[in-house]
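User: Hi! I have a protein structure encoded as tokens and I'd like to know what sequence might fold into it. I'm fairly new to this, so please keep things simple.
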């Protein structure tokens, strides 16, 4: 990828503040537009080196190989798959912001935009479905779908004159594809900053269905609220948790570069016993849209980590607090509303889970200690409760994985 450099892209990239991963993922989604991080690194100096290499690539129009060589020359060892993700996502975001600004300035001459996806084996089906959609530059469609629309997204937008737009055919409301918005993604230049008043005006002026547009606005607002809530629920990082963060990251990122650092931070809170606030929040029935969004994020995050560190033991044994098991009775069925951490300890209350192979996150595979973290949605039946060698043992059997 060697795009023609332009000033707006360079300015956007160079003005972003360099922060540590846990700081970045504690920012609300609007503020993240102004920040950069590299989740595989825990040193500001190293992160700054990588981001400087990216900015140099933007200025020079250099290739991924040039970027990779520059990072390696600085003594920073990162998996190639993850470097590729960092490089392409940051380059695409910077150029998208620059392109958006240029198109806005030139919209009198070219008032229409056309979505352009790359039709090959790597393109996401949802992105391909939007290929050649033509809408007015002020249409609310671009508030939601101006690319990039995810990590490594290669889609772009082409500005058209009215004559060109008519030639390609302006996409009608009826012909717009029904595609779910990825609420975990928030770098669209059309949503840069707090655009609530602009969105309200565009909704009022649009010929599109107002109900649909209001729903999309509410979803975006819910994501911002969920991001702020997650920040308040997670414990502050210290030297011990930073070390564990680095250990787990080095293990999972090469296996799945798309795992979000916030997912690792949630896992760390459970491993280190900092889960009280998060568990209490998840135990409540979701009421608001933001609560539903946050729960959906956590389910998806734990599922991704579980996929690369799946428990292989059929029987898992560990200790839990007495308050958690006090109400359990034989024959009762329970479904996890929050992750359940089972690890060895010296307490007198033990849970033994049968039929557990393939479920839960094996911490040993992540170099994060001993134990298994069972994810939200798994259902158990309480098979027995009895005293064994002076310990109160609750025998559970997995009956469903929702």
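Assistant: Happy to help. Inverse folding works backwards from shape to sequence: for each of the 402 positions I chose a residue that suits the local structure. Here it is:
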């Amino acid at each position: 990828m060697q795009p023609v450099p332009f000033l707006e892209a360079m300015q956007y990239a160079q003005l972003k503040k360099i922060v540590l991963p846990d700081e970045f993922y504690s920012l609300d989604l609007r503020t993240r537009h102004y920040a950069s991080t590299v989740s595989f690194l825990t040193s500001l100096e190293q992160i700054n080196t990588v981001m400087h290499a990216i900015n140099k690539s933007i200025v020079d129009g250099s290739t991924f190989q040039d970027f990779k060589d520059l990072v390696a020359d600085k003594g920073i060892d990162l998996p190639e798959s993850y470097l590729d993700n960092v490089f392409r996502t940051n380059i695409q975001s910077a150029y998208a912001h620059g392109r958006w600004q240029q198109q806005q300035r030139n919209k009198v001459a070219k008032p229409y935009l056309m979505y352009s996806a790359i039709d090959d084996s790597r393109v996401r089906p949802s992105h391909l479905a939007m290929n050649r959609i033509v809408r007015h530059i002020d249409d609310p469609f671009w508030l939601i779908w101006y690319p990039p629309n995810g990590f490594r997204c290669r889609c772009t937008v082409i500005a058209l004159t009215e004559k060109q737009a008519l030639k390609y055919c302006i996409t009608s409301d009826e012909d717009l594809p029904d595609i779910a918005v990825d609420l975990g993604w928030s770098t669209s230049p059309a949503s840069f900053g707090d655009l609530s008043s602009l969105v309200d005006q565009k909704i009022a002026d649009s010929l599109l269905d107002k109900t649909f547009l209001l729903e999309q606005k509410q979803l975006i607002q819910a994501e911002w609220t969920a991001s702020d809530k997650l920040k308040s629920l997670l414990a502050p990082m210290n030297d011990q948790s930073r070390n564990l963060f680095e250990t787990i990251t080095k293990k999972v990122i090469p296996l799945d570069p798309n795992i979000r650092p916030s997912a690792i931070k949630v896992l760390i809170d459970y491993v280190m016993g900092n889960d009280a606030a998060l568990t209490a929040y998840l135990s409540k029935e979701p009421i608001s849209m933001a609560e539903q969004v946050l729960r959906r994020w956590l389910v998806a995050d734990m599922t991704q980590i579980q996929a690369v560190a799946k428990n292989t033991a059929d029987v898992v044994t560990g200790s839990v607090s007495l308050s958690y098991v006090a109400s359990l009775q034989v024959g009762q069925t329970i479904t996890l509303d929050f992750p359940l951490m089972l690890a060895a300890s010296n307490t007198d209350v033990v849970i033994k889970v049968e039929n557990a192979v393939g479920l839960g996150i094996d911490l040993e595979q992540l170099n994060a200690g001993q134990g298994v973290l069972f994810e939200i949605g798994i259902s158990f039946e309480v098979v027995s409760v009895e005293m064994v060698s002076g310990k109160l043992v609750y025998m559970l059997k997995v009956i469903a994985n929702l």
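A useful reference point when you look it over: The chain has a mean pLDDT of 76. Feel free to ask if any position seems puzzling.
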